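Same chain as my last thread, 323 residues:
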Amino acid sequence: MKCILLLAIGLSMPHALTARTFTDAKGRAMEAEVVSVNGVNVTIKRADGRTFSVPADTFSQADQVYIKAWKPGASAVPTEPVKVAEDLKPGSTLVLEFPDLPKDRRDQPTSCTVRLPQGYDGAKKFPLVIWMSGGDGGNTPSSAFLPDGDFVTAGLPFLKGANNPNQASMVGDFDKLWDYHRAMINKIHERIPNLDKKTSIIGGFSNGAHAIDGELKARGGKEGGVADYFGIFILADGGGAGGAKGNYPSLKGKHAYVCYGETSPAAGYVPAVGRNFKSRGAEMVLSMMEKTGHEFTASEQAKVKEWIARIALPGLRAEQVVK
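reply #2:
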Protein backbone atom coordinates (compact mmCIF):
# COMPACT_ATOMS: atom_id res chain seq x y z
CA MET A 1 0.00 0.00 0.00
CA LYS A 2 2.91 2.33 0.77
CA CYS A 3 4.22 1.74 -2.75
CA ILE A 4 0.86 2.73 -4.22
CA LEU A 5 0.82 6.01 -2.26
CA LEU A 6 4.36 6.89 -3.22
CA LEU A 7 3.70 6.12 -6.84
CA ALA A 8 0.48 8.10 -6.87
CA ILE A 9 2.30 11.11 -5.38
CA GLY A 10 5.13 10.82 -7.85
CA LEU A 11 2.89 10.48 -10.87
CA SER A 12 1.00 13.63 -10.02
CA MET A 13 4.10 15.87 -9.78
CA PRO A 14 6.01 17.71 -12.52
CA HIS A 15 9.65 16.66 -12.81
CA ALA A 16 12.87 17.92 -14.29
CA LEU A 17 14.79 14.67 -14.74
CA THR A 18 15.40 13.50 -18.26
CA ALA A 19 16.64 9.99 -17.43
CA ARG A 20 13.42 8.31 -18.50
CA THR A 21 9.67 8.78 -18.55
CA PHE A 22 8.05 5.85 -16.74
CA THR A 23 4.37 5.06 -17.31
CA ASP A 24 2.18 3.02 -14.96
CA ALA A 25 -0.77 0.76 -15.79
CA LYS A 26 -3.20 3.71 -15.72
CA GLY A 27 -1.14 5.72 -18.20
CA ARG A 28 0.22 8.17 -15.62
CA ALA A 29 3.80 9.27 -16.32
CA MET A 30 6.75 10.53 -14.29
CA GLU A 31 10.42 11.28 -14.90
CA ALA A 32 12.78 9.14 -12.86
CA GLU A 33 15.97 7.13 -13.04
CA VAL A 34 16.68 3.54 -12.07
CA VAL A 35 18.86 3.12 -9.00
CA SER A 36 18.90 -0.67 -8.78
CA VAL A 37 17.03 -3.82 -9.81
CA ASN A 38 16.51 -6.63 -7.31
CA GLY A 39 14.58 -9.60 -8.63
CA VAL A 40 11.06 -8.49 -9.50
CA ASN A 41 11.47 -5.10 -7.82
CA VAL A 42 13.02 -1.92 -9.14
CA THR A 43 14.27 1.03 -7.08
CA ILE A 44 13.76 4.39 -8.79
CA LYS A 45 14.70 7.95 -7.92
CA ARG A 46 12.27 10.76 -8.64
CA ALA A 47 13.14 14.35 -9.57
CA ASP A 48 12.58 15.48 -5.98
CA GLY A 49 15.30 13.10 -4.83
CA ARG A 50 12.97 10.60 -3.14
CA THR A 51 13.84 6.97 -3.73
CA PHE A 52 11.50 3.99 -3.40
CA SER A 53 11.01 0.43 -4.64
CA VAL A 54 8.04 -1.03 -6.54
CA PRO A 55 7.41 -4.23 -8.51
CA ALA A 56 8.66 -3.80 -12.08
CA ASP A 57 5.27 -4.90 -13.46
CA THR A 58 3.77 -1.71 -12.02
CA PHE A 59 5.00 -0.10 -15.23
CA SER A 60 4.26 -0.49 -18.93
CA GLN A 61 5.64 -3.38 -20.95
CA ALA A 62 8.17 -1.06 -22.61
CA ASP A 63 9.36 0.11 -19.18
CA GLN A 64 9.66 -3.49 -18.02
CA VAL A 65 11.88 -4.28 -21.02
CA TYR A 66 14.03 -1.27 -20.07
CA ILE A 67 14.23 -2.36 -16.42
CA LYS A 68 15.11 -5.93 -17.33
CA ALA A 69 17.96 -4.75 -19.58
CA TRP A 70 19.19 -2.04 -17.18
CA LYS A 71 22.78 -2.26 -15.94
CA PRO A 72 24.52 -0.08 -13.31
CA GLY A 73 26.29 2.82 -14.98
CA ALA A 74 24.40 2.48 -18.27
CA SER A 75 23.27 5.88 -19.55
CA ALA A 76 20.71 4.57 -21.98
CA VAL A 77 19.24 1.15 -22.68
CA PRO A 78 17.28 0.73 -25.89
CA THR A 79 13.74 -0.51 -25.51
CA GLU A 80 11.90 -2.85 -27.79
CA PRO A 81 8.73 -1.40 -29.29
CA VAL A 82 5.55 -3.17 -28.28
CA LYS A 83 4.16 -4.90 -31.35
CA VAL A 84 0.41 -4.51 -31.73
CA ALA A 85 -1.68 -5.82 -34.61
CA GLU A 86 -2.78 -3.06 -36.97
CA ASP A 87 -6.49 -3.63 -36.28
CA LEU A 88 -6.06 -3.18 -32.51
CA LYS A 89 -6.85 0.51 -32.44
CA PRO A 90 -8.45 2.51 -29.61
CA GLY A 91 -12.23 2.23 -29.74
CA SER A 92 -12.26 -0.45 -32.44
CA THR A 93 -14.56 -3.48 -32.59
CA LEU A 94 -13.37 -6.96 -33.58
CA VAL A 95 -15.54 -9.90 -34.58
CA LEU A 96 -13.75 -13.18 -33.95
CA GLU A 97 -15.09 -16.20 -35.84
CA PHE A 98 -14.68 -19.85 -34.82
CA PRO A 99 -15.41 -22.11 -37.78
CA ASP A 100 -14.00 -25.14 -35.93
CA LEU A 101 -16.45 -24.81 -33.05
CA PRO A 102 -20.05 -26.07 -33.11
CA LYS A 103 -22.88 -23.64 -33.81
CA ASP A 104 -24.23 -21.50 -31.03
CA ARG A 105 -27.59 -21.93 -29.33
CA ARG A 106 -29.24 -19.69 -31.90
CA ASP A 107 -28.06 -22.08 -34.61
CA GLN A 108 -25.57 -19.52 -35.92
CA PRO A 109 -21.86 -20.02 -36.66
CA THR A 110 -19.98 -19.28 -33.46
CA SER A 111 -18.47 -15.83 -33.15
CA CYS A 112 -17.86 -13.25 -30.47
CA THR A 113 -17.65 -9.48 -30.57
CA VAL A 114 -14.77 -7.72 -28.78
CA ARG A 115 -14.57 -3.97 -28.16
CA LEU A 116 -11.41 -2.08 -27.29
CA PRO A 117 -11.63 1.00 -25.05
CA GLN A 118 -10.85 4.49 -26.29
CA GLY A 119 -7.78 4.45 -24.06
CA TYR A 120 -6.39 1.23 -25.51
CA ASP A 121 -2.59 1.11 -25.72
CA GLY A 122 -0.54 -1.96 -26.59
CA ALA A 123 2.04 -0.98 -23.97
CA LYS A 124 -0.43 -1.21 -21.07
CA LYS A 125 -2.46 -3.98 -19.46
CA PHE A 126 -6.25 -4.04 -19.51
CA PRO A 127 -8.93 -6.14 -17.81
CA LEU A 128 -11.00 -8.37 -20.08
CA VAL A 129 -14.73 -8.21 -19.29
CA ILE A 130 -16.81 -11.16 -20.48
CA TRP A 131 -20.60 -10.90 -20.43
CA MET A 132 -23.07 -13.74 -20.90
CA SER A 133 -26.72 -12.86 -21.44
CA GLY A 134 -29.82 -14.71 -20.32
CA GLY A 135 -32.15 -16.79 -22.49
CA ASP A 136 -30.41 -18.11 -25.59
CA GLY A 137 -27.43 -15.86 -24.94
CA GLY A 138 -25.66 -13.80 -27.54
CA ASN A 139 -22.25 -12.55 -28.53
CA THR A 140 -22.60 -8.84 -27.74
CA PRO A 141 -20.53 -7.16 -25.00
CA SER A 142 -22.17 -5.25 -22.18
CA SER A 143 -20.68 -2.38 -20.22
CA ALA A 144 -23.81 -1.25 -18.39
CA PHE A 145 -22.46 -2.53 -15.06
CA LEU A 146 -18.91 -1.18 -15.53
CA PRO A 147 -17.53 2.00 -13.94
CA ASP A 148 -15.66 4.62 -15.93
CA GLY A 149 -12.34 3.26 -17.13
CA ASP A 150 -10.69 1.32 -19.88
CA PHE A 151 -11.93 -2.26 -20.26
CA VAL A 152 -11.73 -4.69 -23.15
CA THR A 153 -15.28 -6.09 -23.39
CA ALA A 154 -16.60 -9.21 -25.10
CA GLY A 155 -19.81 -11.23 -25.30
CA LEU A 156 -19.85 -15.03 -25.40
CA PRO A 157 -22.72 -17.13 -26.82
CA PHE A 158 -23.92 -20.50 -25.53
CA LEU A 159 -23.24 -23.83 -27.17
CA LYS A 160 -26.03 -25.46 -29.16
CA GLY A 161 -27.17 -28.73 -27.58
CA ALA A 162 -25.51 -28.18 -24.20
CA ASN A 163 -28.82 -27.78 -22.39
CA ASN A 164 -29.99 -29.01 -19.03
CA PRO A 165 -31.91 -32.22 -19.85
CA ASN A 166 -34.31 -31.52 -16.97
CA GLN A 167 -35.03 -27.96 -18.12
CA ALA A 168 -34.28 -27.34 -21.79
CA SER A 169 -34.35 -23.55 -21.47
CA MET A 170 -31.32 -23.68 -19.15
CA VAL A 171 -27.71 -24.29 -20.06
CA GLY A 172 -26.09 -27.55 -19.03
CA ASP A 173 -23.23 -29.96 -19.86
CA PHE A 174 -20.84 -27.51 -18.28
CA ASP A 175 -17.63 -29.39 -19.13
CA LYS A 176 -18.50 -29.09 -22.81
CA LEU A 177 -19.69 -25.50 -22.34
CA TRP A 178 -16.42 -24.45 -20.69
CA ASP A 179 -14.34 -26.09 -23.43
CA TYR A 180 -16.39 -24.01 -25.89
CA HIS A 181 -15.98 -20.77 -23.93
CA ARG A 182 -12.33 -21.38 -23.12
CA ALA A 183 -11.51 -21.73 -26.84
CA MET A 184 -13.01 -18.29 -27.43
CA ILE A 185 -11.34 -16.70 -24.41
CA ASN A 186 -7.95 -18.12 -25.41
CA LYS A 187 -8.42 -16.66 -28.88
CA ILE A 188 -9.22 -13.26 -27.39
CA HIS A 189 -6.01 -13.41 -25.32
CA GLU A 190 -4.06 -14.46 -28.39
CA ARG A 191 -5.38 -11.54 -30.44
CA ILE A 192 -5.04 -9.04 -27.58
CA PRO A 193 -1.91 -10.14 -25.67
CA ASN A 194 -1.89 -7.34 -23.09
CA LEU A 195 -4.93 -8.52 -21.11
CA ASP A 196 -4.60 -8.87 -17.34
CA LYS A 197 -6.25 -12.04 -16.03
CA LYS A 198 -5.86 -10.95 -12.43
CA THR A 199 -8.29 -8.04 -12.81
CA SER A 200 -10.49 -9.51 -15.54
CA ILE A 201 -14.24 -9.83 -14.98
CA ILE A 202 -16.79 -12.45 -15.98
CA GLY A 203 -20.46 -11.70 -15.45
CA GLY A 204 -23.83 -12.98 -16.51
CA PHE A 205 -27.56 -12.64 -16.00
CA SER A 206 -29.97 -15.58 -15.62
CA ASN A 207 -28.65 -18.31 -17.94
CA GLY A 208 -25.33 -16.46 -18.08
CA ALA A 209 -25.04 -16.67 -14.30
CA HIS A 210 -26.04 -20.35 -14.46
CA ALA A 211 -23.21 -20.89 -16.94
CA ILE A 212 -20.59 -19.26 -14.71
CA ASP A 213 -21.76 -21.22 -11.67
CA GLY A 214 -21.85 -24.53 -13.55
CA GLU A 215 -18.48 -24.04 -15.24
CA LEU A 216 -16.83 -23.23 -11.92
CA LYS A 217 -18.22 -26.40 -10.38
CA ALA A 218 -17.49 -28.60 -13.37
CA ARG A 219 -13.83 -27.63 -13.58
CA GLY A 220 -13.26 -27.37 -9.85
CA GLY A 221 -9.56 -27.02 -9.10
CA LYS A 222 -8.40 -28.37 -12.46
CA GLU A 223 -5.79 -26.31 -14.27
CA GLY A 224 -7.24 -24.14 -17.01
CA GLY A 225 -10.55 -23.63 -15.25
CA VAL A 226 -12.63 -20.46 -15.13
CA ALA A 227 -10.90 -19.17 -12.02
CA ASP A 228 -7.55 -19.11 -13.83
CA TYR A 229 -8.84 -16.42 -16.21
CA PHE A 230 -10.77 -14.05 -13.94
CA GLY A 231 -10.45 -12.24 -10.64
CA ILE A 232 -13.98 -10.80 -10.46
CA PHE A 233 -17.30 -12.66 -10.80
CA ILE A 234 -20.75 -11.11 -11.18
CA LEU A 235 -23.83 -13.34 -11.06
CA ALA A 236 -27.18 -11.59 -11.50
CA ASP A 237 -30.33 -13.54 -10.65
CA GLY A 238 -28.90 -16.88 -11.63
CA GLY A 239 -26.65 -19.71 -10.48
CA GLY A 240 -27.29 -22.93 -8.64
CA ALA A 241 -26.96 -24.59 -12.03
CA GLY A 242 -28.99 -27.78 -12.13
CA GLY A 243 -27.05 -30.89 -13.04
CA ALA A 244 -23.64 -29.33 -12.39
CA LYS A 245 -21.33 -31.79 -10.64
CA GLY A 246 -18.22 -31.01 -8.65
CA ASN A 247 -17.13 -28.23 -6.31
CA TYR A 248 -15.94 -24.67 -6.68
CA PRO A 249 -12.16 -24.20 -6.95
CA SER A 250 -10.29 -22.04 -4.46
CA LEU A 251 -11.37 -18.43 -4.95
CA LYS A 252 -9.05 -16.90 -2.38
CA GLY A 253 -8.10 -13.36 -3.31
CA LYS A 254 -10.93 -13.05 -5.83
CA HIS A 255 -14.11 -10.97 -5.65
CA ALA A 256 -17.73 -11.89 -6.31
CA TYR A 257 -20.99 -9.92 -6.48
CA VAL A 258 -24.10 -12.10 -6.37
CA CYS A 259 -27.54 -10.52 -6.58
CA TYR A 260 -31.13 -11.72 -6.97
CA GLY A 261 -34.65 -10.36 -7.15
CA GLU A 262 -36.75 -10.52 -4.00
CA THR A 263 -39.70 -12.02 -5.88
CA SER A 264 -37.68 -13.93 -8.48
CA PRO A 265 -37.83 -17.74 -8.73
CA ALA A 266 -34.04 -17.57 -8.27
CA ALA A 267 -34.47 -16.17 -4.75
CA GLY A 268 -34.73 -19.72 -3.44
CA TYR A 269 -31.24 -20.78 -4.52
CA VAL A 270 -29.05 -17.79 -5.39
CA PRO A 271 -28.14 -17.03 -1.74
CA ALA A 272 -26.54 -20.49 -1.60
CA VAL A 273 -24.43 -19.51 -4.60
CA GLY A 274 -23.15 -16.53 -2.64
CA ARG A 275 -22.31 -18.77 0.30
CA ASN A 276 -20.39 -21.07 -2.05
CA PHE A 277 -18.23 -18.19 -3.23
CA LYS A 278 -17.58 -17.11 0.35
CA SER A 279 -16.76 -20.62 1.53
CA ARG A 280 -14.07 -20.89 -1.17
CA GLY A 281 -12.35 -17.71 -0.03
CA ALA A 282 -13.83 -15.00 -2.27
CA GLU A 283 -14.51 -11.50 -1.00
CA MET A 284 -18.24 -11.67 -1.61
CA VAL A 285 -21.25 -9.34 -1.72
CA LEU A 286 -24.74 -10.87 -1.65
CA SER A 287 -27.45 -8.38 -2.59
CA MET A 288 -31.23 -8.73 -2.73
CA MET A 289 -33.01 -6.43 -5.19
CA GLU A 290 -36.13 -5.40 -3.29
CA LYS A 291 -39.54 -5.66 -4.97
CA THR A 292 -37.85 -7.10 -8.05
CA GLY A 293 -38.48 -10.26 -10.03
CA HIS A 294 -36.23 -11.88 -12.62
CA GLU A 295 -34.21 -8.81 -13.57
CA PHE A 296 -30.83 -7.09 -13.31
CA THR A 297 -32.09 -3.61 -12.49
CA ALA A 298 -30.41 -0.34 -13.43
CA SER A 299 -30.15 0.56 -9.74
CA GLU A 300 -28.37 -2.74 -9.01
CA GLN A 301 -26.03 -2.20 -11.93
CA ALA A 302 -25.13 1.17 -10.40
CA LYS A 303 -24.23 -0.63 -7.16
CA VAL A 304 -22.08 -3.07 -9.09
CA LYS A 305 -20.27 -0.18 -10.80
CA GLU A 306 -19.43 1.37 -7.44
CA TRP A 307 -18.34 -1.99 -6.01
CA ILE A 308 -15.99 -2.66 -8.93
CA ALA A 309 -14.51 0.84 -8.76
CA ARG A 310 -14.16 1.13 -4.97
CA ILE A 311 -13.69 -2.44 -3.76
CA ALA A 312 -12.91 -5.14 -6.30
CA LEU A 313 -10.40 -3.52 -8.66
CA PRO A 314 -8.50 -1.56 -5.96
CA GLY A 315 -8.28 -4.72 -3.86
CA LEU A 316 -6.83 -6.80 -6.69
CA ARG A 317 -4.41 -4.07 -7.80
CA ALA A 318 -3.19 -3.50 -4.25
CA GLU A 319 -2.50 -7.21 -3.93
CA GLN A 320 -0.49 -7.10 -7.16
CA VAL A 321 1.71 -4.30 -5.82
CA VAL A 322 2.21 -5.99 -2.46
CA LYS A 323 3.34 -9.16 -4.17
